[in-house]
Design a protein that fits this description.
Layout: E1 8-10, E2 14-16, H1 30-34, E3 57-59, E4 80-81, H2 83-92, E5 97-103, H3 108-124, E6 129-135, H4 141-150, E7 157-160, H5 162-168, E8 175-179, E9 185-190, H6 195-207
Parallel strand pairs: 4-7, 5-6, 6-7
Antiparallel strand pairs: 1-2, 2-3, 5-8, 8-9
Length: 209
């Protein structure tokens, strides 16, 4: 695996190769633009002998490397919300109607409510409605990852810590917060919501005061 710590891109489509890679000839590749990791593999040794010396500028005109995008685990894709980052997330959605659902993977009412939230997110996305899920599982990502791998959820999922739960004084699961377009929290609902009740609340928020 070659990394950009090993290659120096120079003007005119050239690279400067270190001694270990001096005999490897690379062609221009999409990975070059973003400086992302790519696999060199076994490339042709068609570089003129004089160009194989370390430090020489080698034209990129031969074998095309296979680009392998870096893998990002699902665990790294689950941000953890503290009271501070929670408030920042709420502020970032000003201009949208925001629905924040607090759940746990072991909560049966949460599971029953989930299809309604998924349907809501898909139906109202184009109308400026954003749904965010926040897991309060004490097991953290070890519990949440397998759950999300089985159940495909089309909206962002966060992991709330105990500090967040305490600061918001959440006493029941599921709990759902509703925010209007100004970012003001206008309603808190404890317990699972039906599709009809969700739609009624969203329609009222879209119309405004």
């Amino acid at each position: 695996m070659c990394s950009w710590s090993q290659l120096l891109l120079l003007p005119g489509g050239h690279v400067r190769l270190p001694p270990r890679l001096a005999s490897i000839h690379l062609r221009k590749h999409p990975a070059l633009a973003g400086k992302r990791p790519f696999s060199c593999g076994k490339l042709h040794h068609r570089i003129p002998r004089n160009d194989r010396n370390a430090g020489r500028k080698v034209p990129l005109r031969l074998a095309l490397p296979l680009w392998i995008p870096p893998r990002t685990s699902l665990q790294n894709q689950i941000p953890i919300l503290s009271p501070t980052t929670f408030e920042k997330t709420i502020r970032s959605q000003k201009g949208n109607v925001l629905v924040v659902n607090f759940f746990t993977t072991w909560c049966e009412p949460c599971r029953e409510e989930l299809p309604e939230l998924v349907s809501l997110a898909r139906s109202y996305k184009s109308k400026g409605v954003v749904v965010i899920g926040t897991s309060l599982d004490k097991g953290g990502t070890k519990v949440l990852r397998p759950f999300l791998e089985k159940i495909k959820i089309p909206y962002p999922i966060y992991l709330g810590n105990q500090t967040l739960m305490d600061s918001l004084k959440i006493q029941a699961i599921p709990t759902t917060y509703f925010y209007d377009k100004t970012g003001k929290r206008v309603d808190i609902v404890q317990g699972a919501l039906t599709r009809e009740r969700l739609a009624k609340k969203i329609e009222a928020l879209l119309k405004g005061p």
